[in-house]
Amino acid sequence: MTESTWxxxxxxxxxxxxxxxxxxIPLALSSFAIGLVLALGLALMxxxxxxxxxGIARGYISIVRGTPLLVQLFVIFYGLPSIGLVIDPWPxxxxxxxxxxxxxxxxxxxxxxLSVPKGQWEAAYMIGMSHRRALGRIILPQAARVSxxxxxxxxxxxxxDTSLASLILVTELFxxxxxxxxxxxxxxxxxxxxALLYWVICLVLSSGQGMLEKRLDRxxxx
Amino acid sequence: xxxTDPSPAKTQPPLLAVRGLxxxxxxNRVLDSIDLTVDRGRVLALIGPSGSGKTTILRCLxxxxxxxxxxxxxxxxxxxxxxxxxxxxxxxxxxDRSAMVFQHYNLFPHKTVLENVIEGPVGVQKRPRADAVxxxxxxxxxxxLGDKRDSYPxxxxxxxxxRVGIVRALALKPQLLLFDEPTSALDPELVGDVLRLIKELxxxxxxxxxxxxxxxxxxxxxxxxxxxxxxVIVERGDPKxxxxxxxxxxxxxxxxxxxxxx
Lengths: 222, 262
What we know:
heterodimer; B: alpha/beta; Rossmann fold
């Protein structure tokens, strides 16, 4: 590589990192947090005995999982203005990603809740707990352990999917790469650099997942 | 060694009176008009083949199953008629009167031994934490598990877990203790400790209903034995009498099968 290529790598590194720190990472974190809350609600709705309640959740999950994320993003950012609802790029992205995570994570959480043995509910009721309390103190803590690996998958997918936000003008890692690439015509270099940065972020997340699992494993036989 | 007889005053209402209890799962009738009374300080053992409905009786008493009909009276103070589904409040009042020990212990795996025991007293009954902890530790000491207070259930043997299960039930200070085959899941060499503990509790005057397959244990610990089969109480009576001289053909067959399994 020539000296100028190295210079370009160096020069573009900070804008890309800036895009990650101010775009990709907060976008992923906030969408995941909101999405998880939504997912818990949807999972509980799915488990409800009332058919219409679980039906609504089922329908929502089906739509979210049955349509491309990119299409969802475009409907919110480019579609909604035609019915008078204009949302800025950043909030559009957060809404789209949260709704999407909500749909995927709901099934993970539902399965995790169902994986807790029935006897745990019964013991909780036996000591006098209400349904809500049993859920919060006994069932969800155990479901949490089960759902860490699949939810980590969801989160890592989300981090990479945030690159789609570049298509609705959100300044994040990939959009920075695109802009510098267009300017310098060094497409290969810039996109590989972006890929490398995504990879590093995901490596950090994976090790975080490992630590979290270890912590939650303290009450499980090894 | 027979349990001491606390001779309850004859004027006192029985601690537990069950009349005409019925329960079906779909078309399958599991309980058909069950009548039971247990006086204060007495021990009733329920025996019978698996699927006979004896566990369902216990679960109805603790409100884990909703009976379809019949009444349950506790200490003459709480009376629930299951002809209509009782309101949640009454059902939880029923549940508060009793505590259950499960066949598979059902300890909370994410909580330490001490946390398992105080979850009910502190978290639900809102008793002062310091008191609940002191009582829990005394109970754990008593069953020889004082040094396991900070262990997690997976670190304990089955017998130790079941003793924690019993302590968890005692800590709720129930009027009635329910045991659902408390030793069925245990390795044979661990059964003795648990049965000894239950016998002690009987001697101390706890009122108990015990579902068990341990006939010898039932004979020693219970004041009365009821043989349940096909969702009805076929016969009931003094343990020594019933187990040695059963009156009904079904009881005879059942006892014979247990004594001569091969």
